Structure prediction request, 435 residues.
Amino acid sequence: MADKLAFELVSPDRLLMSVEADSVAMPGMEGDFGVMPGHAPLMSALRAGVIQVEGGGEGPDRIYIAGGFAEVAADRLTVLAEEAIVVDDMDRADLEQRVAEANDELSGAAEGEERRLAEGKVGVLQEMLGAAR
Amino acid sequence: MANLKELKNRITSVTSTQKITKAMQMVAAAKLRRAQEAAENSRPYAQRMERMIASVAANLPSLDTAPPLVVGTGKDDVHLLLVVTAERGLCGAFNTNIIRAVQKETRALRDAGKTVKLFCVGRKGQEGLRRDFGDLIVEYVTLRDVKQLSFSDIRPIAEKLSQMFTDGEFDVCTLYFNAFKSVISQVVTDQQLIPVKLPEAEAESAENAGGDADDLGGAIYEYEPEENDLLGVLVPRNISVQIYRSLLESGAAEQAARMTSMDNATRNAGDMIDSLTLTYNRTRQAIITKELIEIVSGAEAL
Prediction:
């Protein structure tokens, strides 16, 4: 068995990351989980949150994703994320402003669909801000 | 005989047209490289997504409980055609090919007694179909202001599509787009989006044995959440991915088509300039000869 885990992070735009890591922790739909080499085959939906890569060498070790899917098979981990941002690249001030803007939008939003969308937006942004801390 | 000034004017105008087509060709060539790259970059995601869906679907205990996006509504009365075209013209038969294919399909479906609805992405498709099937166009999205297509641009389209499906506005959705085969060839492609065509179990195992070095030998996946729910999340996402991919492909194909057609236009303009110049010179010669004859015969008469 390999002592490293082949970790790939793919977004619809491109292959973002492909490294050998010791372990990777992810925000699963039904609770966070970690994957190490030799993990049983697993397929899971991911919610918005931070992926933590341990021993990934050169690559970034904390990446924020806005939901996605993970597939674990034979010492290989593939994460499909719609949107992924390296946590270190996040701009606190910019995020805070976006949260404030989203909050404004929420308070001005009408009932129903619009309100639901605004709430979702605030939630995602706050999650991002939390990750940036 | 055409007069000289007129000929000269025409030569100038054709020359400037040639300059424009030449410039457009070069712009298209530069854009093509970018578009092709984007299309290639989107491939890993789509491939892995497909593999995941195939794997989940193969392990599905029964298809009866699967989400409606997968199994369909059980009818096929109302067809929605999602038509992907370019925003601009001047790219040869690129848009016409799609429009013609859609018209043909629409007529065929109508003759079979089905209802057809059209969802146009791109201005040219809407313009081309408006005349014959204006009343069938239920939705029209233009990506005119989008410079570099990103995944978030697709979301409104995909959301609209699932909303319409949930509201029971159509039973089957087919995507029409130009696939980028090579720089000189674009292929009109139709792909069924909803209900999702699940890859055959056999095809999947064959692919595993052939292409995938990490063949698990039938190891059982653990699913979280369980298969049906996971499929319920995966499939809508996959629809967005398919639309995204088709738009990227269509973008690359559009630039390729424009490049070829502008290359042709430049060459035609060159031919035209040559023949006009020839006429111009001949006419000039004829006039000089005529003047000489007049002078000589005038002198002889004295």
